C-alpha cells in the first residue's frame, strides 16, 4: 500500500496530477478540494494517498489532508459508492459540508453530486452517521499553497475534469456558461461550475 507521496509536481490536469518521486512519475487522481491547494508545477508537493487495486488497473488517489483521505476510505465502504463517486463527493462538498449534510439528513444536497441518486444519498446518510465521528478534528493541509494555471486551454481542461467527475457533457457546457467570463484559470472555472451545480 502506498500511503504517502512527496516529490515534485510534474503535471496537473484535473482531476489527475503527476508527482515525480526520485525520477518515477506517479499518476494520482485527486478531488477538486485537493487540486485547489496544489502549488505550481515544478514545486514540491506532499499528498496522503490511497491505492485501489482492480483487475484491470491499480489507481492511486491523492488527498491534501488526512481528513479527506479518511472520508474517502469510509465512503468507498458504502454499498453502491465506488472510488469515482467518492472522488466526486469530495470534489462537490468539503468534509465539513458533508458532515452537515449527514447530520441534517440533507439528501437533496447529496443528490446534486453526479452519480448519486436518491437511494444512495439515503444510504450515505444512514451509514455515514456513526462513521463520521472518527473523522472529527482539524484539517491538516500538507500540500504547499498557491495555484497556477494548467497548461493548455483552461475551458477545455475544466470541461474534461468535470466530465471525469461524472457530469454529462451537456450539463458541463451549461455550468461553464454560467461562470463569469472574467474567470480564466482552470481551478477557478471548476470551482465556480461546481458551486453552480450545487445551487
Describe this protein with a few key phrases.
43% helix, Helicase, Ruva Protein, domain 3, 3 domains, 199 residues, 5-stranded mixed barrel, 19% strand, DNA polymerase, domain 1, OB fold (Dihydrolipoamide Acetyltransferase, E2P), alpha+beta, globular
Radius of gyration: 16 Å
Mean pLDDT: 83
Q: Summarize the amount of helix as a percent range.
A: 40-55%
Side-by-side strand order of the widest sheet: 1-2-3-5-4
Globally, the shape reads globular
> What's the number of structural domains?
3
**CATH homologous superfamily (4th level) name of the largest domain:** 5' to 3' exonuclease, C-terminal subdomain
Number of helical segments with 4 or more residues: 9
Q: Span between N and C termini?
A: 38 Å
Structural class: alpha+beta
Largest sheet: 5 strands, mixed, barrel
By CATH reckoning, the class of the largest domain would read Mainly Alpha
Give the strand content: 15-25%
Number of strands: 5
Which parts are unreliable, with pLDDT below 50 for 5 consecutive residues or more? Answer: 137-151
Q: Architecture of the largest domain, CATH level 2? A: Orthogonal Bundle
Could you explain the architecture of this structure?
- By secondary structure, this protein is an alpha+beta fold.
- The chain folds into three domains: 4-63, OB fold (Dihydrolipoamide Acetyltransferase, E2P) (Beta Barrel); 66-135, DNA polymerase, domain 1 (Orthogonal Bundle); 154-194, Helicase, Ruva Protein, domain 3.
- Helices cover 43% and strands 19% of the residues.
- It is built from nine helices and five strands, in the order E-E-E-H-E-E-H-H-H-H-H-H-H-H.
- The chain has a five-stranded mixed barrel with strand order 1-2-3-5-4.
- A hairpin with a 2-residue loop joins strand 2 and strand 3.
- Helix 2 (66-75) crosses helix 3 (83-92) and helix 7 packs across helix 8.
Amino acid at each position: 500500500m502506498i500511503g504517502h507521496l512527496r516529490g515534485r509536481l510534474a503535471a496537473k490536469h484535473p482531476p489527475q496530477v503527476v508527482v515525480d518521486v526520485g525520477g518515477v512519475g506517479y499518476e494520482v487522481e485527486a478531488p477538486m478540494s485537493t487540486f485547489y491547494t496544489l502549488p505550481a508545477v515544478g514545486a514540491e508537493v506532499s499528498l496522503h494517498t490511497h491505492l485501489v487495486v482492480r483487475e484491470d488497473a491499480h489507481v492511486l488517489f491523492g488527498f491534501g489532508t488526512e481528513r479527506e483521505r479518511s472520508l474517502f476510505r469510509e465512503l468507498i465502504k458504502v454499498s453502491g459508492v465506488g472510488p469515482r463517486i467518492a472522488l466526486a463527493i469530495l470534489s462537490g462538498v468539503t468534509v465539513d459540508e458533508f458532515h452537515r449534510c449527514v447530520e441534517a439528513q440533507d439528501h437533496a444536497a447529496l443528490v446534486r453530486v453526479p452519480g448519486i441518486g436518491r437511494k444512495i444519498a439515503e444510504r450515505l446518510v444512514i451509514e455515514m452517521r456513526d462513521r463520521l465521528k472518527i473523522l472529527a478534528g482539524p484539517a491538516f493541509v500538507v500540500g504547499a499553497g498557491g495555484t497556477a494555471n494548467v497548461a493548455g486551454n483552461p475551458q477545455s481542461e475544466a470541461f474534461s475534469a468535470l466530465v471525469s467527475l461524472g457530469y454529462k457533457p451537456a450539463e458541463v457546457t451549461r455550468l461553464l456558461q454560467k461562470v463569469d467570463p472574467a474567470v480564466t484559470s482552470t481551478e477557478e472555472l471548476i470551482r465556480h461550475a461546481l458551486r453552480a451545480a450545487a445551487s
